[in-house]
Amino acid sequence: MFGLKFLGKTHIPHNKNTADLTPVKMTPPKEVLLPMAQHIGAPATPVVKVGDEVKVGQLIAEPSGYVSSPIYSSVSGKVTKIDNYLRPDGKSVPAIRIESDGEMSVLEGITPPEVTDFDSFIGAIRSSGLVGLGGAGFPTSVKLDAVKNGGIHTIVINGAECEPYITSDTRTMLDQSEAVYDGIALLEKYVPTAEKFIFGIEKNKPACIEEMARIFQDNPKVSIMPLPSLYPQGAEKVIIYNTTGLTVPEGKLPADVGVLVINVTSLAVLANYVKTGMPLVEKCVTVDGSAVKEPKNVVAPIGTSIREIIEFAGGLKEEAGKVIFGGPMMGIPACSLDEPISKTTNAITVFNVKEATEREASACIHCGRCVSACPMGLNPTAFSKALGYGTEEKMEKLEEASINLCMECGCCSYVCPASRPLVQNNRLGKTALREYKAHKASLK
């Protein structure tokens, strides 16, 4: 439907300043704050209470539905508070605050899960707390459970890491290549219909391409595909098209075209859990940006505050103008330095005041650059125009223009010479359409 537009053609600065820096494990934080919704789906339900002593790897919240994920303590210490927490996206969810004792004592009895067949394999993934670590946090167990119906012929390993600054996936491929190898072995064993495993890695990561080619040189099912360093190469539908030539239709999932996409770090975490039994309790986070004194990759307990991670990384060399969870293209601005990192945080990007100052938006000059830059061939100006219509007509126009295909990659805003908030308008439009449809359905 969209042809070669799936390739993506936006050139953005890479700024992979920390690509050669081995991650450093940070000292125990003073406390962690663990929201119950660190994934798409139903929030987890706390199984601890204020005053309880907990250890690293201990279950503190269980999944409350099929599309949900358990949460484990990332430090040892005492539960001091369970209260609502307002996330950066404006949603309020319960959160567990744990005061660290500084010991990082591991829960006794943690052992590798017994994996003997597909069901126990999916059970192990669910128990690990693993969610998509390169995107929106979709529970990995749900994604992989879809393969039980057959039809999955290709598994794409996403190692594109196309956002500026972020290098945490790069370090996974270089520092944990054996875990990546073990992850592929698990998928080969428990997803027997998969005929091909394709690593999609941008060409600006030659060391990763070389390392993956080395460890899989004797596996004919695995191929390494160097991809153009063009944004947004790592977007799910983009990388599927660029590695397989297949198009995922609107409203469909990758599984509908026989493809499964898994982030390379998710793959390594899965292998490590099956090997050790230690669930997802820490993340490698790239700390970089114009205000950061000493950019580096930091391995931090999930729930650690931005403030403590930045301090461990060497602090700031000048005043922060904007702090972002993730990269500058798709990241979410933090409301406070006391915000905690979550399972899906792969970077903290801090810009100085000068770089963070946004230009004032002016009238659209109808240059068409946003349309040309969109990897999905959409028309962001049509979305903006539709938002000005009355409710019924607005929704019709948004749906006609296929707004739900927008992946919020930010290419339109990046190339707009008028500095218009195009991706923000797209988000508003998608939310409005979703709520409108839900309201209509409730009236039936």
Biggest β-sheet: count, sense, barrel?
6 strands, mixed
Helix % is 25-40%
Mean pLDDT: 93
- Quick one: how many beta strands? 17
Strand content: 15-25%
The shape, in one word, is: globular
* Rounded Rg: 22 Å
So, CATH architecture of one domain?
A: 3-Layer(aba) Sandwich
Q: Can you describe this structure?
A:
With 444 residues, the chain is of the alpha/beta class. Helix content is 30%, strand content 19%. Among the domains are: 3-15 and 118-276, Rossmann fold; 369-443, no CATH class. It contains 14 helices and 17 strands. Strands 1-14-13-17-15-16 form a six-stranded mixed beta sheet. A four-stranded antiparallel beta sheet has the order 2-8-7-4, with no helix packed on it. A hairpin with a 7-residue loop joins strand 13 and strand 14.
Q: Could you write a compact summary of the structure shown?
A:
By secondary structure, the chain is of the alpha/beta class. It contains 14 helices and 17 strands. Among the domains are: 3-15 and 118-276, Rossmann fold (3-Layer(aba) Sandwich), CATH 3.40.50.11540; 369-443, no CATH class.
